[in-house]
Design brief:
Blueprint (H helix, E strand, L loop, with lengths): L2 H14 L3 E5 L20 E6 L8 E2 L12 E7 L8 H11 E12 L19 H7 L5 E7 L2 H7 L8 H10 L9 E7 L1
Parallel strand pairs: 1-2, 1-4, 2-3, 4-5
Antiparallel strand pairs: 5-7, 6-7
């Protein structure tokens, strides 16, 4: 298992210990690779929020203006969403507002990643560096950032070669010799 998958798994297990969890931009329940963790949430009030009704979220809403009361949510999942919002700082401020004190937040944002907007759907506005993440989430008391993929694997991920999984092990070994400045994205764990 990769270091970024270990990080994500450890943090999603922490999120699943909370009582009220909001999956923002999670339209369909347990999408974006969360389905394998579904059983962890059996005793959790897990709700999805999406701006589009076609995904059948529990709550139809806009991340820029959440309908929840201040400090009413124990934990938030926000995976591969912030690149699609026109005002990420406003969205993050809203997440911060609805999180309880010591509330937890697990986020994934892309950095070196292909454009993936939809013509009549979500737009694709932003990419995030480590510095940008630290700035945007500066109100949180704790920020842990874990790069997803190394330099070479990130480059391969941008090409048709990404489907050749046999290369991944070799590339990960080679990536150990390069700095971690380039990645395809970041898993971020935050505490309010």
């Amino acid at each position: 298992m990769t270091s970024w998958n270990k990080f994500f798994e450890e943090k999603i297990r922490e999120i699943a210990k909370e009582k009220n969890v909001l999956d923002i931009g999670g339209g369909f329940r347990f999408q974006k690779g969360l389905d394998k963790y579904k059983d962890l949430f059996n005793n959790v009030n897990y709700k999805t929020l999406d701006i589009k009704s076609k995904y059948h979220p529990d709550i139809i809403g806009d991340i820029h203006s959440l309908s929840m009361k201040d400090e009413s949510i124990d934990a938030i999942i926000c995976k591969a969403v912030l690149e699609h919002v026109y005002d990420p700082q406003k969205a993050i401020n809203e997440m911060y507002r609805v999180l309880k004190k010591q509330g937890k937040c697990l986020v994934y944002v892309p950095f070196l990643y292909p454009y993936h907007g939809e013509k009549d759907g979500y737009k694709d506005y932003y990419r995030y560096t480590k510095d940008g993440i630290e700035y945007l989430f500066r109100k949180f008391s704790s920020i842990e950032i874990c790069p997803v993929r190394g330099n070479l694997e990130t480059v391969i991920n941008l090409t048709p070669l990404r489907s050749l999984n046999i290369l991944n092990s070799l590339i990960r070994i080679l990536d150990r010799f390069f700095s971690g400045q380039q990645s395809s994205g970041y898993n971020v764990f935050l505490i309010k």
